[in-house]
Each structure stands twice: as structure tokens, then as C-alpha cells.
Amino acid sequence: xxxxxxxxxxxxxxxxxxxxxxxxxxxxxxxxxxxxxxxxxxxxxxxxxxxxxxxxxxxxxxxxxxxxxxxxxxxxxxxxxxxxxxxxxxxxxxxxxxxxxxxxxxxxxxxxxxxxxxxxxxxxxxxxxxxxxxxxxxxxxxxxxxxxxxxxxxxxxxxxxxxxxxxxxxxxxxxxxxxxxxxxxxxxxxxxxxxxxxxxxxxxxxxxxxxxxxxxxxxxxxxxxxxxxxxxxxxxxxxxxxxxxxxxxxxxxxxxxxxxxxxxxxxxxxxxxxxxxxxxxxxxxxxxxxxxxxxxxxxxxxxxxxxxxxxxxxxxxxxxxxxxxxxxxxxxxxxxxxxxxxxxxxxxxxxxxxxxxxxxxxxxxxxxxxxxxxxxxxxxxxxxxxxxxxxxxxxxxxxxxxxxxxxxxxxxxxxxxxxxxxxxxxxxxxxxxxxxxxxxxxxxxxxxxxxxxxxxxxxxxxxxxxxxxxxxxxxxxxxxxxxxxxxxxxxxxxxxxxxxxxxxxxxxxxxxxxxxxxxxxxxxxxxxxxxxxxxxxxxxxxxxxxxxxxxxxxxxxxxxxxxxxxxxxxxxxxxxxxxxxxxxxxxxxxxxxxxxxxxxxxxxxxxxxxxxxxxxxxxxxxxxxxxxxxxxxxxxxxxxxxxxxxxxxxxxxxxxxxxxxxxxxxx
Length: 667
Fold this sequence. Notes:
Elements: E1 3-4, E2 13-23, E3 29-46, E4 49-50, E5 53-54, E6 60-66, E7 73-80, E8 89-95, E9 101-106, E10 123-130, E11 140-145, E12 152-157, E13 160-162, H1 194-206, E14 220-224, E15 232-236, E16 239-243, E17 248-250, E18 252-255, E19 264-265, E20 287-288, E21 297-298, H2 300-309, H3 313-328, E22 332-333, H4 341-345, E23 349-352, E24 361-363, E25 366-367, H5 372-382, E26 394-398, H6 412-418, H7 424-436, H8 441-448, H9 468-496, E27 501-502, E28 525-527, H10 536-545, E29 551-553, H11 576-591, E30 596-601, H12 631-648
Parallel strand pairs: 18-22, 18-30, 23-26, 26-27, 28-29, 29-30
Antiparallel strand pairs: 1-13, 2-3, 3-4, 3-11, 3-12, 4-5, 6-9, 6-12, 6-13, 7-8, 7-11, 8-10, 14-17, 15-16, 16-17, 19-21, 20-21, 24-25
């Protein structure tokens, strides 16, 4: 049964151009909001009763939305226990344009124990960040509409709560054409038909593209520091470098996700595709059924190549792509790329090892790091490096990418004792407290302002609000947890492969100084940095806080809406030419930062129009779904990559030309 939040009396807040009550095409009540700078509507109450509805009585919140823009939109659902507090749970939801989409949120997810929420039809990427809240304590719910580059019109249906998932009636109106392009939009460079696709590939395959690099590994041959046979780090007069196996200075210029596949789910949204081939037919290699959740995914990049080259499609693609990367001046095949691509084509590369796990996690994907299971899992994961340990083209390995538990400054030890799980790490914490308080429970009770009978009472869920001293203790042990998290797989990997560098964990950002724990096991400290350019002061601090390690940026990008994707990027710019200027400014100004030893662009291919596995559908590729390079961007990439060593060595100044920005659209 649907229980609707009181709707008629609400108003829109923010810079609203117009606001009126209306209906959706489904007959549901709605408000129509026109805004350019962003707006929101809110429902208030207390003790879990918002808009006249008890949020503790049902399981799911549903908000129907509709808009018909030339881009997707991400909405934010914010939940507050205290209406006057800044602390809240923040759920960001991307949505496709052109039809009514039911935004569905399980209220149990307000505990923030999952960073990425389950996709439902019509919805794109969604994340949960902020502060965990309880449904029975809610006092305010805000539905927020983001700013846009132009005035956009959004229909927000009347929210309701229910005990079962709503129907998702996705229309059978082709959204994606036979080549994988957005059917509802035209743009400069759109491939008209299969004949044009064929003619393009014939030209590209036969095109003469000489490699830019003059050395085997793409290093700077102006000075030699002695061949060691493998990549290593070197500091010269306060400036960090990588040194290639032949002894030359090496600055890592990479691109992520070099591969044939950029697939997206099709289940429950089959009607959005003009054509989907049979699963077991000629195009079976374009289907991906390896997902743990059983969802089918389809890749139009692969389908187009199979249409042209049959069984030889992967070899054709690989030769063409290797030729392009070398000509464009990339000397690194970066993370998540096709296995063996770098080695086969003589391009240095990086890899990411499998990361150990335990059946019982502490918070999100943070494992029980003090358990024998974690150590055993780490040893098993490290075996992945056996086949790589003697490869001279391997720069090094990342331990993992963007841990979910690190999307915020969370007190992991507090999360641990707040749960009902009896873990090895929890018992290690109790041991830590016994030692600190001399096995005197009275001392702990006094410091924590509690009344425990014994230390082992902490095996049961500890829901009491932390005192200042209790917070210090849990924070101190959180450092120990993170240190163990890094130490165990690092030691296991080095036992298998002593030749290659440990490149760290590719943090999404440094939300806490606790993230520097375990840095002594790394050769390079890695972060992903979605800014306009690397900040020299921030990079210097990262290096200093990690014990003086060199720093590598694993991801950055920019996108635009002048082509066939409904979302631009985490950094939006005006058009494809401005994407080139963005790349040049980012890379060239990064190259003069002494601690930085490389930057990797994310990514080689554009993402799927209807979203990849998690819903990202961004214009961030160097090539589109039909294999066509964004030449306006690539032209600047070539100029920059050719100049990097002169810029790094002080022979040339980095560009001062910044890209023309655009507001981020979609998610």
C-alpha cells in the first residue's frame, strides 16, 4: 500500500524560475519546477514522521520523476535526524531523460553500509554518503534538483513509502541505435550508418601513425641512471622520477580501461534498444554474463567490430589501438586495461591485484583484518602476481581502487563495536583496551562514561554515544585497523613479486589522515584526482604525510555535452576542443610538481549511453562507441605528451590556457 507524503502545501526553495502543481503522464500528482541554479523541496516532521507519513512503518521510499532534456540529471535525497544539523545521509541518484522514472530507495540503506545502491530501470549511478541516520529519528527529508547549464524543467511526482518495490514501466521507444549511439540526438561526428562505420575503420586500420617515443619504454633518454631491469623510483635534487628498466627517467603518461568492452546492462530496459542480437549467435562475444548478480550486459563497441571483422575483430582492434596510443604519446597502459595488452604491444603498463576479503566485513567493504581468513585471502590474492613478476614492461601494481569504506572520514572502530558481529578485529580492540586501561574496567567506565561489567561486554553491540575519550580510543584503533588493512596484502605481494613496485590503493580522495597508515609498505602513493589540475600544495602534503613517497594520479578526466552522451563528466567543459585544453592544462601543470611521477587519464572508450554496470554514462573517452577519435581533443593530447619531458626538465613552461568550464550534468 502506498502512503503518500503531504504534497499540496509544499513549496520549492532556491532560485526557482517557476513552480506549479500538475500531473505526470501516469496520472500521479506532481510539481513542475523550472530552475537553472538549483532548487529543492522538503518535508519536515519529527521522530520519523515526515509529511504526515511514518517512515518506520514501511521499507521503501519512491519518488517518481520526469524531464525531457538533452542530458541526464542527478538528484539528491537528503535525510536529517536534526533539522538544524549539517549532518545527514545524502543519496545521489542519476536518472535518464525522456520518460517517467521511479527513484526507489530502501530506507535500510540510510545506515550507509553500502556506498553504491542497486540500480533500478531508468536510474543511473547512485551513491550514499554523509552520516548514517535512523528512520525512526528523521526530522527532515529534502529532494534536491542540481544546477544546470541552462534552465531545465523537472517534474517531481508525489513521494510515497511502501513495503514493496514499485513497477518500473520503461517504454519501448528506441533510445539507442544499432551502432550503440544515442538515437534521440544528432551531433557533429555522429556515424550515420554501417557503411560509414566500415569506411572509417578501413581508413584507420591502414593509416600510418608513427610512434612518438624514441626509447623502448618511452623514457627520457637525455640522461641514464643505470639499467636495473625493472622500473624503480629515484629522487634527484628533490624531484621524484620513475626510472625505466634501461635506466632512463620515466614520467608515466597513461590512459585507463584500454580494452574492447564498454558494456551496459540491458535487462528490464530492452525496449530502449533499436536492436539487440541473439545471445548465442554471431555476437555472443559482445554479451557479458559474468556479473555476480546475473545481469546481462551488451557492448556495442564489440558488436560493431564483430560486424566488420568477424572472428578476427579483437586482433584488428588491438593493432589499431596500440598504434594510436604510441602515436598519441602514451607510455603507459593504465588500470583495468585488457590483460596482456601492454606486454604484447611493447607498452609499459600497470595492473591491480585482487584484494583480500573476509566473509564478515566491518563496515562496507572493510574486512576483518586481524583474522586468519584475511591473511589467507591475502596470500591467495598475491598469487595473481606470479605470471607478472619477471615482466620488464610492468611498472608496478596497485593493491586496489577507491575502497568503499573510505568515501568519508568514518570511525571504523566505532562502526565495528556498534554492529552485532563478533570479529577477530573486535576482540583485538578489546585486547587493546585491556592493555591501555591495565585490565581495569572501572578506569574504562570512568573515561568512556559508561557502566560496563567487563571488557567482554563490548562483544555485544555498543550503541551508547561516544564520550570524547571513547572517541579518541576508537579513532586510535581505526588507525591500527587501516595499517593492518594495508600491511597484510602488501607483505604477501612482495613475497611473490620483489621486482615490481607497490603503487598503493588509488584513494578516491584523502578524507582522513588515517589513510596514510601503512605507507611504508608502498613504493608510490596513489590517488585519483578529479580536479581542474593537480594542486602542488596538496600533492606535496600527500607525499610528506605518506613518508616522503612519490605520488601517482590514477584517474582524471573531463567531458562535454556536444556529442552523444547524456552526461559530461566529473569535470565538465564546453566541447571536445575544450576537453583537449583541459588535458593539456592538467598534464602540463602536473608535470612540474616535484613529487608527481605520472597521471593517468580515465578512460579510453566513452561509456554506454544507458550507463555501464553502475550507471555511469559519461563522455570521457578518447574514442566514441564507433571507434572514432575525438580529434579536437587528441590534437592537444599529442602536443602535450610530446612536450612532457621538456616541461618536467624545465626547458619549457606549462600551458596557462585553461578549459572553458561547464556545469556537471548527470552522474
